[in-house]
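To the structural biology subgroup,

Please find below the input and predicted structure for ATPase, which we are adding to the shared reference set this quarter. The sequence is reproduced verbatim from the submission form. If anyone notices a discrepancy with their own records, reply to this email rather than editing the shared folder directly, so we keep one authoritative version.
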Amino acid sequence: MGGGTLKVPRDQLVALVDELREAVPHQLDEADRVLEDADRVLGEAQAQAEDVLSTARARAIELVQREQVVAQAQARASQMLASAEADAARIRQDADDYCDRRLAMLEDVLEQAGAQVRAGRERLVERALERSAERAD
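Predicted structure (tokenized):
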């Protein structure tokens, strides 16, 4: 063997290539699942935020319709709406943070798979060069 060359038995190389062929579609399926999960979480968060806003608006209208002082009702309604909007913003931020964490994990997995693919391809090139060198001898 020359310096920096590595001979890999054919059966090991075939097993590695087969493993990579199986891993990549799995990683793509996992990416789809993560994105679907993120979309679901974001949809739920948005629905919950809309429910909070709707409830706050309904309660604000109810307060105004009662026989209370109009100024007090408006102040309370504004507070509730601000609180609901803050809750909605927090829920959206939590959903975005969750999605970002999941996507970061997926990115790491895909980078690892890419590194494995590159290493396998480099091994194939090395073998081809070794075969060429052996034929030249």
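Summary notes: The chain has a mean pLDDT of 82. The chain has two helices and no strands.

Regards,
Lab coordination
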